[in-house]
């Protein structure tokens, strides 16, 4: 039995649809999936790029602010030296002592600090490290409290921990004072 032209056309149509279906599922669908994934990836990249641009702008702004503050930060390093150079502090202490008729006998710095004070500092000022500073002075007892008030109100923010004295004569006493001063953990001048 010979196939009629109608049967041939129908067979060809079914075969063509079958081939198109195979081509669609085998070639076109993965291409469409790849295009959709690529669109999503591009969208993610654009979002990331926008976030990076915003962060870059913020960093540029902060860098500019830092450059504007650099002279001020340099001044802070005189009061809270990163490198433990307390010469400015000792010079100011000497001047304050002289103004109250005291004489500086000796000074000593130590990185060892009372644990309670160190814990309090770490809680309040994590960018500063406390340092113990002790000095021996000689002078009149009548101006000691004025000197101590003046010294604790200087920009160095010393905190007096202990004060002891030894009578020398009726007019002057030898004092030993221990107080805490601070230094920055980080170098602000870099």
What distinguishing features does this structure have?
4 strands; alpha+beta; Alpha-Beta Plaits; four-stranded antiparallel beta sheet; 4 helices; 190 residues; 56% helix
List the helices and strands and how they pair.
Layout: H1 5-79, H2 87-99, E1 103-110, H3 115-124, E2 128-139, H4 144-152, E3 159-167, E4 173-184
Antiparallel strand pairs: 1-2, 2-4, 3-4
Question: Can you give a write-up of this model?
Answer:
By secondary structure, the chain is an alpha+beta fold. The protein has 2 domains: 69 residues; 98 residues, Alpha-Beta Plaits, CATH 3.30.70. The chain has 4 helices and 4 strands; from the N terminus they run H-H-E-H-E-H-E-E. Strands 1-2-4-3 form a 4-stranded antiparallel β-sheet. The longest helix is centred in the N-terminal third of the chain and has 75 residues.
What portion of residues is helical?
A: 55-70%
Indicate the radius of gyration in whole angstroms.
39 Å
Helix and strand run: HHEHEHEE
| Form type | rod-shaped
A few lines on this structure:
The protein has 190 residues and is an alpha+beta fold. It contains 4 helices and 4 strands.
């Amino acid at each position: 039995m010979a196939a009629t032209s109608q049967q041939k056309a129908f067979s060809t149509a079914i075969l063509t649809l079958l081939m198109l279906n195979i081509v669609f599922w085998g070639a076109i669908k993965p291409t469409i999936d790849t295009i959709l994934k690529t669109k999503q990836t591009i969208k993610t990249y654009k979002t990331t790029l926008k976030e990076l641009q915003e962060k870059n702008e913020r960093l540029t702004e902060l860098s500019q602010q830092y450059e504007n503050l650099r002279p001020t930060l340099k001044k802070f390093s005189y009061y809270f030296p990163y490198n433990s150079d307390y010469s400015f502090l000792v010079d100011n202490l000497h001047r304050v002592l002289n103004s109250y008729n005291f004489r500086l006998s000796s000074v000593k710095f130590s990185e060892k600090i009372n644990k309670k004070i160190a814990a309090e500092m770490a809680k309040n000022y994590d960018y500063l490290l406390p340092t113990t500073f002790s000095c021996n002075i000689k002078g009149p007892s009548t101006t000691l409290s004025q000197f101590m008030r003046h010294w604790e109100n200087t920009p160095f923010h010393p905190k007096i921990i202990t004060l002891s004295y030894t009578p020398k004569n009726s007019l002057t006493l030898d004092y030993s004072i221990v107080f805490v001063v601070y230094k920055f953990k980080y170098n602000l001048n870099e």
